Amino acid sequence: MACTCSHAPAPQKPDSKFRTALWIALFINIAMFFVELIGGAYAHSSSLWADALDFLGDAANYAVSLAVFGASLYWRATVALAKGLVMAVFGLIVMAKVVYAAIQGLPPEAMTMGAIGVLALTANVTSAAILYAFRDGDSNMKSVWLCSRNDAIGNAAVILAAIGVFGTGSLLPDIIVAVIMAVLGLTSGYQVILNALQERRNNPLEKQALE
């Protein structure tokens, strides 16, 4: 889902609306991390645990973005680079969880998966809608938007997995969705890393001045 089209340069300073959007998204993601962590453990669902891990990573991303709010473009790009790496690492962690679930062979509890998936989808659609206006900003803003977008897609997939598990009694739909979410995290992380590296290269004088 990486976008290769170019956009006009973003303003050097994010505005107060972006700060407010970050705070809202931060609280939503922290709350949903605990909901999905507990629900995933109860339902034995790899996709719920994958989504919970993603919620935690997003909450950390939003907190870091708030910490560098108003900083120079070079340092915001540096933070975005770190966040891109984290997104990619989370994708690898989810892959490992999928392998473990496949070895265990225990199908998840579909009703719990579906109910939590609907709740998480509602939360992330709200976050994505709030952050939508900032999707074409600098690499830091873009990474924040991608986090919320990925979560909303992941939640919809979890709901589909729950339906699949309910209809088949197999853990395969849960595993398939978890793999998709892992790939989404890896590709999005790669996109953010590329954007951040380009912004750092385009601001060498700013880098030297800050150092």
TrEMBL record:
- The keyword Iron is assigned to this record: no
Q: Where in the cell is it found?
A: Membrane
Bilayer topology annotation: Multi-pass membrane protein
**GO process annotations (BP):** zinc ion transport
Domain (Cation efflux protein transmembrane): give its ranges.
22-198
Q: Which InterPro entries match?
A: Cation_efflux_TM, Cation_efflux_TMD_sf
Quick one: where is this thing mainly located?
A: membrane
Q: Does the keyword Protein biosynthesis apply?
A: no
Q: Which one of the record's GO molecular function terms can you name?
A: monoatomic cation transmembrane transporter activity
Q: Which UniProt keywords apply?
A: Membrane, Transmembrane, Transmembrane helix
GO CC terms of this entry: membrane
Pfam families linked:
Cation_efflux
Where does the chain cross the membrane? 21-39, 59-77, 84-103, 115-132, 152-169, 175-197
The signal peptide stretch is none
**The protein's name in its UniProt record:** Cation efflux protein transmembrane domain-containing protein
Species source reads Acinetobacter bouvetii DSM 14964 = CIP 107468
Which classification does the entry list for the species?
Answer: Bacteria, Pseudomonadati, Pseudomonadota, Gammaproteobacteria, Moraxellales
